[in-house]
Amino acid sequence: MIESLCVAVSRREAEDARRKLAEKHLLRTDLKIISDERYVYIPVSGEVDIESAVMKKMYFEKIERRESFRDAIKKFLGEAKISSFDTVGDIAIVRIPPELKEHESEIGNAILSTHKSIKVVCADDGVKDDYRIRNVRVIAGENRTETTHVEYGARIRLDISKVYYSPRLATERYRVAKCVKEGERVIDMFAGVAPFSILIAKLSKPSRVYAIDINPHAVEYARLNSRENRVDDIIEVIEGDAREVVPSLEKADHVIMNLPHSSHEFFSLAVNAGSNIHYYEIIEKDKVKDRIENLKNEAIEEGKKADVKNWRIIGGYSPSKVKIGVDFIIR
């Protein structure tokens, strides 16, 4: 047993706290998290500032270190250019540089051998068609592309070859869900398989969530996920183009715009649809402030005022591009 600093949080807040600690590189992954009837105790490497959490010292069991993915691929690739991959449910999705294509089977098997919870490994060959779906191929493990991803207690079923889904937005989806108050209405303009909508419906008890998508496969999964998470009485899934659907809906308290490569093309539609806009875009780093000003000007042209409540960089996309989130208040 090893003594370590830890944060004590309620069971309800534990998953969110763990994610935040991991993002800040404060989570000790060499020690096992423990719990009792009231609290979850998460070992950390230093002092942290999490609301309602209590710092203390406790003893934890050490996790025996398995061979890492990097160590496994070094055996046949040396210092390779692959350091990470996305995980959706029990599927790993990895981008393999062209010069390493001949080793993709070994790379896939290295992921399987070092991550016991992963059953399928897919190569990501970029995006395809108008729905911007990942072009994936199974390179190791079971021959399937459907899985169930669990996020803050919500179970999201999807097929990564047919729908768009980003596991990297989990914390952002939780943050938006906590912004919604009981009884409010929400329009999810580009809902996909409905992860935003479902988390909001489960956590915030809105009166109605309209989940819109033009991809029929995404719509099918959104309806399935709404039923399986028992929120189909709150979520109305609508297949169609947001430009045609949104004007027919009642005004919402929150509008979610997660179409990162072209959301700016729909902003004038959104400012007339709701009083709070949660906007996402992938954009060049040096163009962020100009984009925000342009969006504010678009609101003025629509007879509205868009005040920026906050904006943040959610993550990197390429050496020159980032994904941003902006919360607008529309008056």
How is this structure best summarized?
The protein has helices at 14-23, 69-77, 104-114, 170-179, 195-204, 216-228, 242-245, 267-271, 288-301, and strands at residues 2-10, 34-35, 39-43, 54-60, 86-88, 91-94, 120-128, 133-141, 146-151, 154-159, 185-188, 208-213, 235-239, 254-258, 276-284, 306-316, 321-330. The protein has 331 residues and is of the alpha/beta class.
Helices and strands, with pairings:
Layout: E1 2-10, H1 14-23, E2 34-35, E3 39-43, E4 54-60, H2 69-77, E5 86-88, E6 91-94, H3 104-114, E7 120-128, E8 133-141, E9 146-151, E10 154-159, H4 170-179, E11 185-188, H5 195-204, E12 208-213, H6 216-228, E13 235-239, H7 242-245, E14 254-258, H8 267-271, E15 276-284, H9 288-301, E16 306-316, E17 321-330
Parallel strand pairs: 6-7, 11-12, 11-14, 12-13, 14-15
Antiparallel strand pairs: 1-3, 1-4, 2-3, 5-6, 7-8, 9-10, 15-17, 16-17
